[in-house]
Specification:
By secondary structure, the protein is mainly alpha-helical. It is about 65% helix and about 5% strand. It has two domains: about 1-135, no CATH class; about 135-260, no CATH class. It is built from nine helices and four strands. Keywords: Membrane, Transmembrane, Transmembrane helix.
Length: about 260
């Protein structure tokens, strides 16, 4: 249900963007809700796949059902606020201009923490107690994807939300606008952008289980090696793109001179 709601809200945001010419940060006010709805739909769909890998008694347990319910509720609250702020023509992230928006910003942070905690509970439970059909590569991929993805997401999101590295939240040098950013993603092409490592961090949750599943399907003698190597590579990409962004460099190129 949550996936369907998020996708429906994504379609509505896309439609609104066709008629609403207002912009925020150089992009349509409906750009962020469109991307957020799609991203969270993928996240919840991933957790649903994880649940299908879990032993039946655990899948129906109060711990897992309650965790999934609370996680979905937190997602819907997050998406609801992002959509509301878009309709108002106001920023939802890095916005503490009014007491209400400051409170809502911290509430969003709490909601994200709930989502990440729920992801940890579900993913690590699958790693510990999967159904017998789950191969060793997929099992390790789920465990590593959950742990590495959650920790890397916390680190990159924390770097942005603290606004200690850059007062803009995610831009480091360059033009402080999404105008002229990469198509669809919106990442800066003139300076550093902390959304880049955050993107790679969050999608370790999908990439590492897929790597493990492919290793199982390929019939390798040591399928666990594949998700392990993928985890190291994925975290290296997160680290590299974080350093690249902090140096004020756009993701499309690395220059030797640091941007002012």
């Amino acid at each position: 249900m949550t996936v369907a709601i998020a996708l429906a809200m994504m379609v509505l945001s896309l439609a609104a963007g066709l008629f609403d010419e207002r912009t925020l940060g150089g992009a349509s006010v409906w750009s962020k809700p469109t991307k957020f709805n799609f991203s969270f739909a993928v996240h919840i769909a991933t957790l649903m796949v994880f649940l299908s890998l879990l032993q039946a008694d655990l899948r129906k347990s109060k711990l897992i059902t309650s965790t999934m319910l609370v996680t979905c509720a937190a997602v819907l609250l997050e998406l609801g606020y992002v959509g509301l702020q878009a309709a108002r023509g106001r920023a939802s992230h890095f916005n503490q201009e009014t007491p209400w928006e400051e409170l809502a910003y911290y509430a969003m942070g709490a909601a994200v923490a709930v989502v990440l905690l729920g992801t940890l509970v579900i993913g690590l439970t699958v790693w510990r107690r999967p159904v017998s059909q789950v191969g060793p590569g997929l099992r390790l991929g789920v465990g590593l994807g959950t742990l590495a993805g959650t920790l890397a997401t916390l680190a990159t999101a924390g770097a942005m939300s603290s606004m200690q590295f850059t007062p803009t939240g995610h831009w480091v040098g360059g033009d402080l606008t999404d105008a002229g950013g990469l198509p669809i993603l919106g990442w800066s092409t003139t300076g550093g952008d902390l959304r880049v490592p955050h993107f790679f961090a969050t999608h370790l949750l999908q990439a590492l289980p897929v790597a493990g599943w492919l290793a199982d399907r390929s019939g390798l003698a040591f399928p666990r090696v594949v998700p392990l190597v993928a985890a190291v590579a994925g975290l290296a990409i997160v680290w590299f793109t974080f350093q690249q962004a902090m140096s004020g460099q756009p993701v499309i190129g690395w220059n030797t001179a640091r941007s002012p």
